[in-house]
TrEMBL record:
<dbReference type="InterPro" id="IPR024975">
    <property type="entry name" value="NOV_C"/>
</dbReference>
<dbReference type="Pfam" id="PF13020">
    <property type="entry name" value="NOV_C"/>
</dbReference>
<feature type="domain" description="Protein NO VEIN C-terminal">
    <location>
        <begin position="550"/>
        <end position="628"/>
    </location>
</feature>
<dbReference type="InterPro" id="IPR036890">
    <property type="entry name" value="HATPase_C_sf"/>
</dbReference>
<protein>
    <recommendedName>
        <fullName>Protein NO VEIN C-terminal domain-containing protein</fullName>
    </recommendedName>
</protein>
<dbReference type="InterPro" id="IPR052957">
    <property type="entry name" value="Auxin_embryo_med"/>
</dbReference>
Amino acid sequence: MSIQNLREEFLLEAKAAPKLFKDLAKVEQYIAESYKTRALIELIQNADDAEATKFGIHSFKNGFIVANNGKPFTKNDVEALCRSGSSNKQRGGQTIGYRGIGFKSVVNIANTVNILSGEFKFSFERSKTIKALNNVLDVPLIRIPHIFDQKDTELENEVSEIIGEYNYNTVFIFSNVIEEISRNELDSLDRSSLLFLKNLNEIHINYKNIHRNIFVKKNDDNNVGNVKLIEGEFVDEWKIQHLENNKTDLVAFKIENGIIIPALNDESVIHSFTPTNEFSGAFIKINGDYTTDPSRKSVDMDELSVQSYNNAVKIIVKSIKDILNGDLSKQGFFTPFINVQTSESSRFKKLLFKSLDNALQNNINSIRIKPDWLNFEDYENICKNGITSISKNLISTYPEIFTFLKLINTKILNTYDTIERINSVTLTVMGYAQIYSKIIAQYRYDLDSTTTEKLKNLSLFPTQNGILSANQITSTNELEKEFINYLNNNVDSADATMFFKKFGIETSQSIGIVSVNKNEIKAPTYTNEILNNTSTFKIPPTIKKWRSTEKNAQEYLKALNVALSVKDVTEANLGYDLEMMLHNGKRIYIEVKSVNSFIEPFKISNNEYSSAHNYGEDYYIALVINNDDFKIMFVPNPIKNLSFEKKCERWSWFCDEYINDLQEINQIIL
């Protein structure tokens, strides 16, 4: 069918049903208003549906063109373009759109649109339509196609150089412009909007003073594909995951230096191939065959949408199961999930975490999270008997794993779990002391005779003769000194005395919280064997004032010659912030404290105190002045070298005298 024949057919329809034709004009106007801020993304989607690899917007003297190098129009395409809501695109097929109304988003931009595609040349122009219908004023723009006249041919010649330079096959020429295409939309087009498009890999915008060139580079490898979005010096990298034999339902994680990071809030949306305004539920992108409202801004959770979202959950669940089974290749995986609670409320946030909770119940039922009150070695020892711990390797690779597991209601190792298993495991002296302290704290107001008898049978007290129960000892003199020292530092004296009395153990010494004092302290002398008079740093450390103290300390340490790796494990609540591996194989543990000066008191938590005690010479406190003049100093083995005062109101350890024990970095690394 020729353009002339199609024109005559539509004119006859308009004359036969003038009221319907007028209604079409109103519908067109409604669509244009609904899509007003999405005209650009709709035009990009149409190009992708045409299997274009290249898309462009270019201004010229009398208007601008929108063009692509996709398949030229067929007669069916031309007819579909003319009919509002009529399209040969199918839901779930090879194309993204399925309503066929996206192009109508441009009707408020210009009074004339000329189209060049393959063998077809035609225009949409209100003035010509009004004239053909004997001055009927209320007419749609995109309905009646018109044959090119001399003016149209002149416009074609004016843009022919641009068309040839970029090898475009389909060109829309907008002239007689009513409203400029949104400069804000062109300028703020998010590169990540292109992430899930099937075909496009180049976008060129040369619109007045806006010049942008965006390239999409894909590398598909089985079920994981890496995509780079490149614009000038900016490169965004994403890891896309999908289920086997399903490349429609996708989850994308943002990557930086090979590590997964949280996407920006504006990037973290659900895509129906192009982005909606719906927050995905975490700082990730989710794509699928979603039903949307006419403006494609919000998602309608019909049966197909629910199925797509469930598939996205399956993708995430599979990765979590792999990690719980020991996969260390997804560093940073949990970071997009753990801070999501601080974002604005979203129906998909609630849906995502509820779905993850339900899907992972069988996997997490036996898992116990490490509690603050127990050291890691004994947490693992307790969990060897019928429950599952999270290994230190996993925590080192995924410091946020405990925080995430709490979000999906994973249980924390509690006193009951410990009591049930303590007689069948062997723990450290510190572990027994920590468990006994926890028992005192938990039962101090609720110690009935039944509970007392049960506790008296626990192998809980380390002595020279082994680990004994309360029924097997008579006096606190029999207890290991380290056990007593821990109680002195962590348990109220009255509580400790009361419990020993209930257990029938004579307290022949003062037990309870006291100030830990030191006599004369001499700062340890260190030799600098590793540095050996070479430069301290392999590269200058990148310190940013806006970064957290922990992050700046990490950047400082990573830049050292001796550093093999430095991991931020703050979220794991291990009693230290940074875990540093040296090239000689030594591992050190660093708790970072922000101070305004090196004479300001600082405090450490009970958890940090226990870790410092546990790791001894491998534990350091880094005191950081995190302002314009970044400074960092270190205190090695703080339990040995510093005086702390227990302040019970916050259960924290305060130190206000440490200046003589501060060390430079080249003094502490042996």
